[in-house]
Design goal:
The structure is a homodimer of 328-residue chains. With 328 residues, chain A is an alpha/beta fold. Chain A is built from eleven helices and twelve strands. In chain A, 55% of the residues are buried.
Chain lengths: 328, 328
Amino acid sequence: MSGFYSVGVDLGGTNLRAAAYRDGEIREAIALPTRLDHGRDSVVRDLCDAVRSLMRDFAPDHECVGITIGSPGPLELPAGILRSPPNLPGWDGFGLRDAIESNLHQPILLENDANLAALAELRAGSGLHSGLDSLCMLTLGTGVGNGIVLNGEVWHGSNGMAGEAGHAIVEPDGAPCGCGSRGCLEQYTSASAVVRMAKEHSSRLRSMDSLTASDVARMAAQGNLEAQAVFEQVGRALAIGLTSLINVLNLPLYVIGGGLSNAWDIFAPGMMSDLARFSYIYRITSTGNGTSQTATRTQIVRGELGDKAGLLGACLLPFTRSVARGTP
Amino acid sequence: MSGFYSVGVDLGGTNLRAAAYRDGEIREAIALPTRLDHGRDSVVRDLCDAVRSLMRDFAPDHECVGITIGSPGPLELPAGILRSPPNLPGWDGFGLRDAIESNLHQPILLENDANLAALAELRAGSGLHSGLDSLCMLTLGTGVGNGIVLNGEVWHGSNGMAGEAGHAIVEPDGAPCGCGSRGCLEQYTSASAVVRMAKEHSSRLRSMDSLTASDVARMAAQGNLEAQAVFEQVGRALAIGLTSLINVLNLPLYVIGGGLSNAWDIFAPGMMSDLARFSYIYRITSTGNGTSQTATRTQIVRGELGDKAGLLGACLLPFTRSVARGTP
């Protein structure tokens, strides 16, 4: 044995990615489509085959510290059962932990993907330089994920379902959401929301079938007023959502990641100025003025790890667990 | 020495209450008006005189475990400095901990009043029977306080300013709030908000100078439609605020206390039915159906301790601290 490694998996609604991690780096990675149309048993087989393949390559010389599977939520923990996951249609009530452990014949760590992204940003991204041990992360992707780390540990809540700020209401009676409610943060700050809002704002954009959030961001950067109005709405909705998170949690760091955070320069200025109007806790704590010298500043930053955050968090988790247990 | 006692103080914007606590009960209590017009030094003197008076009565036979002062927030901790507290006008930047400790010549525990109410409900109120160690409390009074206890400990956040859910936005561009924002939960669910909304709904009520929230509650109970509409708005705003708290924190217990919770029977049915529409985490976790047998149910209940919660929490805190330190 010449060292320790971990295996992490990011099970997404579109892609399935697996990686082996050693000495602070991802050493080998596998990417597959998530074949939802073949059924969940088939997806679990693909996933376990990828894990086994990575382990075969590393096993001769290294000891496996642990295997983490990151899954979209809501995921009931510790049972490991999916509950009406919007991005894995038909998987409601599926015992994901049991299915994977039966196939692999060994225990796994199972975690919500946004929680893993939050952990990765804390340990290896935007939290790394500051030495902080608490943060709140929002991942703006197809949906809006949310992970909260308090004092170095993911906050799971009673049933593993904490961190669903994407379904906080920012616009009462607003756009209908897949969760069954209306006006959720996700309906104004996800990539799909940007496309929907762009089509609402402009009849020209409405006719573009293949319009993506990146297209809208590029148009906004080029000065298109309708596209800019969409990102003003993104910034404002994020400011309303962050106001609640900041006033309730008073954490030192809020990280905005996921694909839509590539448009950070477009929506962040509006978001910051709205936030300064909306949250008095942010106003009090965002500058050094008016607070004592021991006070911690509240920072809102863009995630540093891009779309690797979830996979990296999956790889890191077994190491943080074994450190907690006193193993290397 | 025949035992241990604690002293708790509830410093409110209107009343100052102090109590000595021993063997699980409040033994002696002092209530004074908070003489804000005499200046903060004078209020601190009144407060310390009350503490000394209680200690003189108990000192001969008992050992003091600790003194807790509960104060309105935002309160920067551990520094103990008030930050623009809406209910203590002119106290911004006041070093409350230093002022009290200099007067008493001994260390105190200083805590946000809503956090103390949350602790009291957990240890001696609605959380007592369930053996839970986490909850979120909203106190509906002149303003709306919020306290969060996670795994038995008050969640303070970075600067002691966590638990300001009263200033989460439930109605974007809604009623202006003392915190500088608009549409805060407090503007729809506090006693003063009920009076304001009643006057907005009805020209007859608008002319009643001395109208109180209790008056509006009584009218609603007697079938007045305008008063009932006000409490529908209260229930709906609480449901929006609770949706965010439940989806983000996934705690087992949410307690609604404070004076306005006397109108529980009037607003709770609407609140519960709105909540079931707004929060999918509540829907998943509020019934035993569809979750595994190990799942914890989410409960929303009325506080059991009434307006004593804050004072009792102040009395209890020194005992929980000394238990944590291994002292009786």
